[in-house]
Design a protein that fits this description.
The N and C termini lie far apart (61 Å). Helix 3 runs antiparallel to helix 4, helix 4 packs across helix 6 and helix 8 packs across helix 11. The chain has a 3-stranded antiparallel sheet with strand order 5-6-7. Strands 1-4 form a two-stranded parallel sheet. Strands 2-3 form a two-stranded antiparallel ribbon. It is built from 16 helices and 7 strands. It is globular. By secondary structure, it is mainly alpha-helical. The protein has 2 domains: 169 residues, no CATH class; 201 residues, hpI Integrase, Chain A, CATH 1.10.443. The longest helix is centred in the C-terminal third of the chain and has 21 residues.
Amino acid sequence: MTPLVDTLRQLRYLVAHLEDNTLATEYPDIDHFLKNDVFDPERCKGDLAFLYQFLYVYGRKSEATFNRFRNEIERFYLWSWCIQQTSVFDLKREHIEGYVEFVVETKDEWVADSVQWRFKDIEGFRRVNPNWRPFVYKANGVSQQTLASMFTALNVFYKFAILEERTFTNFVPVVKKNCPYLVVQSQIKLPDTLSDLQWEYVFGVTKDRCEKDPKLERNLFTLACLKGLYLRISELSDRPQWAPVMSHFWQDQDGFWFLRIMGKGNKLRDVTLSEDFIDYLKRYRLSRGLSSLPRVDEPHPIIHKLRGSGGMNVRQIRRIVQESFDLAIKKLNEDGFQEESENLQAATSHWLRHTGATHDAQHRPLKHLSEDLGHSKIATTDQIYIQTNIKERAKSGVKRKL
């Protein structure tokens, strides 16, 4: 099983090698696959060049967007080439329906037990990992989120192909509309949040440990940013087009503080800072040997590395959060809160954003909350975090007589 796409950073090299017919000099496995294992080498080479073009355009938004589309479209290409023996641009509606069936009941040889790297540098070549597979095993089968992501990626891909005049048809919307596996969401869905007790332990235990282990001041401040400012981890991390630094904190003429953030879709927004958060900002900066408040020209990264220079990536910040979660899980168990401890084991860093927004939705104007969250539509904030209508409906229904 041969992957077709490497990392975002390597994409430009893949494009150049494909155009110059020099894949064998760096990617011999892809070169062999295209020459010997596909139904039509020249047709597949043209399809692959278009895939690289598509990923280059959408990968410029963010690495996360690139990875999401790469995973979905790459496996779709492999299915079309290896099983249907045809180009992705010759597939009909019934073929797309067949692909959905394939995703729901994937063949064992297409599934890996865990996430695997695609390529690794070996003796000057980018060689394929023999354990890599297009799909990863899920104990509970294909989730609604997986299916939704698949349809989104395929729909965006074919819309792009139409704009580029590579095809004139997109069967994805009609297949999605009639898909028997997609469940229409009409039930009450609450965001994943930490309970008050869990947050008290996550933040409190980290804060207590700072006296013995000063490096945990970084953990404490990261928690404050994610929960108190409703940030996504990606908004705190270094990215090719944005590096969060201390000068992104700024104060207006009335003395109010803000943090300038680049959010999803490369949209800039200014998040308001609470007085409580500013106290932890001062504490964190003093622990780093900086002045209590940022200057307008300060280049220091917001979340710093303990070794080396520059900011941190998403994975490194996620590890910081998990370290505090693990400390809280252990302490909850010691104090007899086994159920809270078990539930916290399922939490992710994104729960902190939901926790802060859900709590503040009870007393902040919806428009203000929506703007700090970075939602393009106020209806999104209302749908996710405002539970007033649900509670009112429950109150009016609880007294019904049989």
